[in-house]
TrEMBL record:
One of its GO terms (molecular function) is 16S rRNA (adenine(1518)-N(6)/adenine(1519)-N(6))-dimethyltransferase activity. It comes from Candidatus Polarisedimenticola svalbardensis. SUPFAM superfamilies: S-adenosyl-L-methionine-dependent methyltransferases. Its main location: cytoplasm. It is found in: Cytoplasm. S-adenosyl-L-methionine binds at N14, L16, G41, E62, D86, N112. Its EC number is 2.1.1.182. This is Ribosomal RNA small subunit methyltransferase A. It holds the Pfam family RrnaAD. Belongs to the class I-like SAM-binding methyltransferase superfamily. rRNA adenine N(6)-methyltransferase family. RsmA subfamily. Residues 21-197 form the Ribosomal RNA adenine methylase transferase N-terminal domain. Keywords: Cytoplasm, Methyltransferase, RNA-binding, rRNA processing, S-adenosyl-L-methionine, Transferase. It catalyses: adenosine(1518)/adenosine(1519) in 16S rRNA + 4 S-adenosyl-L-methionine = N(6)-dimethyladenosine(1518)/N(6)-dimethyladenosine(1519) in 16S rRNA + 4 S-adenosyl-L-homocysteine + 4 H(+). GO terms for cellular component: cytosol.
Amino acid sequence: MDRLPRARKRFGQNFLASAGTIEKISRKAGELADGDVLEIGPGRGALTAALIESGLRVTAVEIDRDLVVYLRDRFRESSFSIEEADILKVRFADLLGGLDIPRADRFLVVGNLPYNISKPVVRKLVDERETVSGAVLMFQKEVAKRLTASPGSRDYGPLGIFAGLFYRIQAWFDLAPGNFRPAPKVTSTVTLWERRDDPFLDPASEQRFRTCLEVCFRNRRQTLFNNLRHGLAGGEPAARELLEEADLDGRARAESLEPATFHSLARLWPEALPE
Ligand code: SAM
C-alpha cells in the first residue's frame, strides 16, 4: 500500500509525530520488556517501527482494518504479528498462546491509547495481570492524574486505588497536542506500570473491595458515614457498626484514606449484603 490510511476520528486516531518521543518510549520499552511487547492500537506504526528496531517482538491489536492491512504489509519481514480486533474483546492470554515462542509468558503492554477506552483498558490490565509484566501507556493527562494520585488529592479515587493495588504506576512525562497528527484537544501523559508481585489483596476479596470503593466515594463531598449509610443495605446502624469495627472516624472523607484502610474496611464489609 503506497498511501497512508487516513486518520479516523471515531477510532480516536491521533498519531504520534515526535521522533524524540517515539525514541524515548521505545528505549524504555526495550529496558522493561522481556522480549515481547503487546501494542494496543499501533495506528500507522510510528511506535511499532521503533519497537521492532530495538529488537522487540511486537504483537499488535488494531481495530481499523485499513491500518491492519497497511501494517501487515509494512512489517511483513519483521518479528511482528497483528490481529484485527477490538482490544477489549480479546484476551491477552489468547494472544500469547498464538505466539510460537515458548519463553514468552508475559507481555509488556505499550500503547498510545484512544482515550475513550482508557478505563476499560485499566480494568483489563488488572483482570488479566497474569499475562502482563508491566506497561508503558499514554493517557489523557486527567486520567493519568487519577491513576497516580495520592490520598488528599482531588484526583484520588477508585480508579487509581484499584489499579494501584496491582501495579506501581507513575506519570513519566507529558506531551502537548502538537506532538500528534491530527492534534488532539488535550494534553497526554505517558505512564509507567510495574506489576506488583505482592498485591495486598487476595483475588477472593476483589469484588468486595470494588464495592467498598464505590460506596465510600459515591459522593466525594460527603463524609464516610453518610456515604456508608446510603450505600449499605443495613442503612445507618450498619454504617455505625462497620465504622466502629474498623476503628474509623465517620466524619472523614474517603479521599483522605490510604488504600490499606479501604482494604481493612472491605474485609469487614457486611457478609450478607449483595456485593
Ligand atoms: N500508536 C499509534 C501512534 O501513536 O501513532 C496510534 C495511536 S491512536 C491515539 C489510537 C489507535 O488505537 C488507533 O490506531 C486506533 O485505530 C486504535 N484503536 C481504537 N480503538 C481500538 C480498540 N478498541 N482496539 C484496538 N485498537 C483500537
